[in-house]
Amino acid sequence: MAIDWNTMFVPSESILEIVIRGTIMYLGMYFILRLFRRQSGAIGTADLLVLVVIADAAQNGMAGDSRSITEALILITTIVLWDVFFDWLGFKSTFARRLLEPSPLLIIENGKFVEANLRQEFLTEDDVMGTLREHGLENAASVKRCYLESSGHFSVVLENGGGSQKPDATKAG
């Protein structure tokens, strides 16, 4: 039961290569997933991507697949730094935010479903109605506008006099 400390901590690949591989994989997967617009639910696409890639990178370091712990930690750090950088860039720049985050998508307008936008996001009227019912709305008639936000949540603006519902944003999920 000898422990090979050298294999465990000394990288077998160039640190620069690990950073470049992590960068290429993160950016490639980010922009591929970005094409699908948004992730439904409370976790965003970038968050899900980071979790999956970190889990894979950590597995390589833990399983000893000719990868050192140091390599896994460098790869994880690279991925997290790209994620933080994109969050910071979206916060600081309106232009970057428009590129990195999809704009809200109109789902209901004046009580009517916008069919083209439902199809675009693979949503059914039943999916949206389930969310509206969770917040006390029995039908779409009282909804002035309903948007699918970049976070995957729905925000709802009610018609004036639309019953006892508050006209503030409602979230799915």
Description:
The chain is of the alpha+beta class. Strand 3 (143-148) and strand 4 form a beta hairpin. Helix content is 53%, strand content 10%. It has 7 helices and 4 strands, in the order H-H-H-H-H-E-E-H-H-E-E. It has helices at 5-9, 15-34, 45-63, 69-92, 94-100, 115-120, 125-134, and strands at 105-109, 112-113, 143-148, 154-158. A 4-stranded antiparallel beta sheet has the order 2-1-3-4. It starts with a helix and ends in a 15-residue tail after the last strand. The protein folds into 2 domains: 5-100, no CATH class; 105-158, CRO Repressor, CATH 3.30.240. The model is unreliable at 162-173 (pLDDT under 50).
Unreliable spans are 162-173
How much of the residues is beta strand, in percent? 5-15%
Quaternary structure: single chain
Number of domains: 2
Question: What order do the SSEs take from the amino end to the carboxyl end, as H and E?
Answer: HHHHHEEHHEE
